[in-house]
Amino acid sequence: MNKYVKRSLQIGIPLALAAWIIIPRIGGNGVQSQQNAPGNKGKGRLPVTGIIAKNSVVAAGFPVNGSLLANEEVDLVAEIVGKVRKIYFQEGVAVKKGQLLLKVDDADLQAQLTRAEFQKKLLAEKLERQRILLKRESISREAFDQLQTDYNMLEADIELLKVKISRTEIRAPFDGVMGFRYVSEGSYVQPSSQIARIVDNSTLKYEFNIPEKYADNNLKGQEVFFKVTGNDKLYSAKVYAVDPFIDVKTRMILLRARFRNTNGELMPGMFAKGNLVVGGKSEFIAVPTEAVVPEMDGKRMWIENGMVAVITKHTTTGIMINEALPCVEKDIEMQLERIVPKDFPYVHTHMLPTYGTCSGNAPGHLKSMLVGNHCIFPVIDGKMMTGGEQNIYFAELDGLQIRHYFIEVMGE
């Protein structure tokens, strides 16, 4: 005797959502489920095992691979010949811009400077006497000009000595962290001798390449989500620069995105896998692979006959079905903005005593009414009956925040 058994599985999944959140089609080939039902024990039915679907980031974009670069990175080198007199920094310690890091012995230069300053004082007094004699026409203009030139040259020599003395000091060019040093106190250095490396990793640059066919996209300002090896955390960076040239060998475009490394959790040189967003950032429900069975004509999930419903529990979100094309998504967004403009004087926009503040999400409520809050698909012979190009969209209409929606599966 074949009995109809109705089952219901309801899953609430919180998501932090962006403008348009795409829930990929649940197969298009549906779901199958087996469970022991009352009166059917021993007839081959198995108990269902529930798995909470995980949310993942997706976008109207493409995967990219690249490396993290320091915001600023400099190899500090000696600019003058001499012996290292004192080192004022420790390896791996943060330093401030302008901080003294190393001093090369400058005793000989200081002695030359002192001598030149004495000569300058003597020459200045002589020049003043010669100026008085010139007024009395007791000396020639040529003799006075020669003395004036000697005085000017001595001043230039003094300035040159001061420049050389300044080069005996190596200071931090920017705020950063010192790397390993390559000299010790007492070492003899020459111009271009490497002292140490200083790195500013408060902000990191994610450098990656994309194919030239994406050159016509508005790449600057787009977001790229990435992960690093050994860390499942998802990071976000924003493209700030696009190389104006395409590599003729690889036909790739070089891009750089900036990431604020506030906690110092990432380091320059790390390899990162990312996804460049070119049509708005999105998140979607990833169905566990254990629940999907591949077939010749698609994929099947575990319910034989019944229905699948997707329902949102918020009045400023929506569930809708449409074709997953960036142009269609843009048209929907533009039409919703046209029908429900942001700057209209809505009655809802006033002080709400229950919230203690003014409400600014009136457009979200109205757009939700237009979009709808649920969708339902039948499941027949283990296949979810959807159109070939139908996709389920979760529409966030009130800014980035935590949201909940439910997926309910009923069937036999």
- Distance separating the two termini: 15 Å
What portion of residues belong to β-strands? Answer: 35-45%
Broad structural category: alpha+beta
Unreliable parts: 1-46
Oligomer: single chain
Q: How many strand elements?
A: 24
Could you estimate the helical fraction of the residues in percent?
10-25%
Widest β-sheet, arrangement of strands? 3-10-13-12-11-14
Major beta sheet, specifics?
6 strands, antiparallel, barrel
Shape field: elongated
Radius of gyration over C-alpha positions, nearest whole angstrom: 36 Å
Mean pLDDT: 80
Helix-strand topology string = EEEEEEHHEEEEEEEEEEEEHEEHEEEE
Number of helices: 4
Task: Please provide a written account of the structure.
The relative contact order is 0.23. Helix 1 runs antiparallel to helix 2. It is elongated and about 120 Å long. The protein has 4 helices and 24 strands. It is α+β, with helices and mostly antiparallel strands. The strands form 6 sheets. It has a 6-stranded antiparallel barrel with strand order 3-10-13-12-11-14. Strands 1-24-17-21-22 form a 5-stranded antiparallel β-sheet, with no helix packed on it.
Which key features would you list for this structure?
412 residues; alpha+beta; six-stranded antiparallel barrel; five-stranded antiparallel β-sheet; 4 helices; 24 strands; 42% strand; elongated; disordered N terminus
